[in-house]
Specification:
alpha/beta; eleven-stranded mixed beta sheet; two-stranded antiparallel ribbon
């Protein structure tokens, strides 16, 4: 949940909003080549070719793991509590997506989002330069309801939470990567906190929280509410009567969480509330809810952009310094040079393909490759007990990533 800088859009161009931020629409952009989790070959790797046009049909970079990916969606209802934002709704309803290693590719690739969701998301961003259904045509790499692969209780589970106002689909490329490497992944749409969410009966809920005046209490309520959503989803997937037919695959001793923006901030609140979460990542999210007095002793990664989270810099960088002090287990503070807020999500890839400038100085495909590489390394180390030297010091293969020492106010 990052407090973001407002970028001025060129005259005559509309912007793509994301919590107080404008992404200027460019006149031309190029198709970004699909990028895997490999070191950059040169400074221009993944850069657009001069004179090329925006992609007619956007696509997500292919996952680099060895396994095909299946996906499905679930409608979950928590009758034990009313909706925190719409009290007249006596139960909290959620939509979640699951990705998992599959026995074989299916016949039908999963839809990225519905045409209506695409329309409302682009409208919210004031983007009129592409057709309203453009995002519904994004090519994904997962197959709907493909048969899950794996033995009982063998696969770690990763929970993903998106940014405020954004759908769960914005984390699809990361989810596909993790699933291709043998993780079960569940991404949660936090109802009434995103611009468009579709339920199986055709209802489309919109963003109630987007219209609210955001003071500290609202952000704290949001983070704690998301923590409750996470615990409920874990109950639904790992309880006595699991809602997903593949739940037997999940190793309940190896569950962790990652989120971007508000979802990243909520990861700390969720870990504080639920000991089943063994490790966590905050991706570019400013934390408003307070940590427990005793802090957290489980592994945690802070991954963000220098403009907001450089230690010692006046502003919200101090927010992570407070979080850092309360983390008493394994921890890292990493910053990705040139990143913008969208760089850590599918949007960084897609805006490049669609000809939309998001303020980043790193190509979206490269930023996604970096994000996936470090997130996978973190979970491999802490859930699979596979040491990852990449997390110990800077790497020549990923020169964009700086390791920060908050006590010294330095990053290198």
């Amino acid at each position: 949940m990052s407090h973001l800088i407002v970028l001025a859009a060129p005259r005559g161009l509309r912007g793509f909003r994301g919590r107080g931020r404008l992404l200027a629409v460019a006149g031309l952009a190029a198709v970004m080549a699909a990028t895997s989790l490999v070191p950059a070959a040169s400074a221009s790797a993944g850069a657009p070719a001069s004179g090329t046009r925006a992609a007619a049909e956007p696509y997500l970079p292919a996952p680099t793991g060895s396994r095909p990916v299946g996906t499905t969606s679930l409608h979950l209802k928590d009758a034990s509590r009313p909706d925190p934002w719409v009290p007249s709704a006596k139960a909290r309803e959620l939509m979640v997506s699951l990705w998992y290693p599959a026995k074989a590719p299916g016949r039908r690739r999963a839809q990225y989002m519905t045409p209506k969701e695409s329309e409302l998301l682009l409208k919210d961003g004031e983007i009129t330069t592409v057709p309203a259904d453009t995002l519904s045509k994004v090519r994904t790499n997962a197959f709907t309801d493909a048969r899950p692969a794996g033995s009982a209780h063998s696969l770690p589970l990763i929970v993903l939470s998106p940014g405020h106002s954004k759908p769960r689909s914005e984390l699809t490329a990361l989810a596909e990567e993790l699933a291709s490497r043998g993780y079960v992944v569940v991404a949660i749409d936090h109802t009434y906190e995103n611009v468009a969410q579709t339920f199986p009966d055709g209802r489309v809920t919109t963003c109630v929280t987007c219209e609210m005046k955001k003071d500290l209490s609202v952000w704290q309520k949001l983070e704690k509410g998301r923590a409750a959503d996470v615990s409920f989803v874990l109950d639904e997937l790992t309880g006595k009567h699991p809602k997903w037919k593949g739940s037997r695959l999940i190793d309940t001793s190896r569950i962790a969480m990652s989120g971007q923006s508000a979802g990243g901030a909520s990861t700390l609140a969720a870990m504080a509330a639920d000991s089943r979460l063994r490790a966590g990542i905050d991706v570019d999210g400013t934390v408003e809810a307070e940590l427990p007095e005793e802090g957290l002793s489980r592994p945690f990664l802070l991954l963000g952009k220098p403009a907001t989270y450089t230690p010692g810099r006046p502003g919200t960088g101090a927010n992570w310094e407070g979080v850092w002090a309360g983390l008493h287990g394994w921890k890292r503070w990493l910053l990705v040079t040139g990143a913008a807020h969208t760089s850590f999500t599918d949007l960084g890839v897609l805006v490049d393909q669609l000809g939309i400038e998001d303020g980043a100085d790193i190509p979206g495909a490269r930023a996604m490759a970096v994000t996936r590489r470090y997130v996978v390394a973190f979970f491999d180390q802490h859930l699979r007990k596979k040491p990852q030297p990449l997390l110990d010091k800077p790497s020549a293969s990923y020169p964009e990533v700086k390791f920060c020492a908050p006590e010294k106010k330095t990053c290198a």
